[in-house]
Amino acid sequence: MKFPIEALEEKIGYRFQNRDLLVRALTHRSWLSERGSPMPESGDNEQLEFLGDSILGFVVSEALVLRDANAREGQLSQWKAHLVSAAYLYRCALALKLGEYLQLGKGEDRNGGRERKTLLSDAFEALIAAIHLDGGMDAARKFINERVLRALDSPEEMESIELLNHKSILQERTRALGLPVPRYLTVGASGPEHAKVFTVEARVGDHFVSRATGSSKKLASQHAAEMLIEQLKASRTPDSAV
Questions:
Q1: pTM over 0.70
Q2: pLDDT tens profile 7-23
Q3: Residues 53, 122, 134, 226: which is the catalytic one?
Q4: Do residues 32 and 113 both lie within one domain?
Q5: 51 and which of 63, 67, 129, 138 could share a cystine (Cβ 3.0–4.6 Å)?
Q6: Which residue of the set 44, 125, 134, 226 is catalytic?
Q7: Which residues contact 123 (CB under 8 A, 6 or more apart)?
Q8: Is residue 34 annotated as a catalytic residue, yes or no?
């Protein structure tokens, strides 16, 4: 490879016993295809990305439950969705400058593959799997704690997470339950121009309705969606019918 592999090991804080795993985690299918490999998938990082995704999901779920025993399921899902998202993993990969270490075909390289969000987030997950296969779950957990879960220690990051995904989670739940798509309507606005408060109504069919206020329509709609998520959860009790 064109880079000193020790440099990346130093960055991630882990030294591989089997460096072939690290090389595979950084190898895109285009690199092998360009070299005429009859089975590019046998040496690229796609299988490792698949495994890394599962390991990441488990470790993040475990950490979130241990972090806050009183957190609601919807809140845990919200935090997890952010921490395992391609957008967030892309940021984690950029922090490592992971793109500099990838093995890409010339065409993929010319087309900006080293900065492509999907490619970098996939490589980051493949790296997690490589560490796990080489050093076990404890090594993978340590890497995830340092490189992914650090967001939980940032008040600014947590505040931004709080505003994410309630509407997405609600839409996923209604789809799974065979319910109508959620609708949102701004039903009120009060206060001076510089400090307006908006009221948004969220509705799923004729039976689930909530209203919430916020300093923006976006914030109010997220809170209204959160309230509907709780309503849907309550409706699934043995004595309730959706």
A1: no
A2: 999 999 999 999 999 99
A3: 53
A4: yes
A5: 129
A6: 125
A7: 25, 26, 28, 45, 49, 93, 98, 102
A8: no
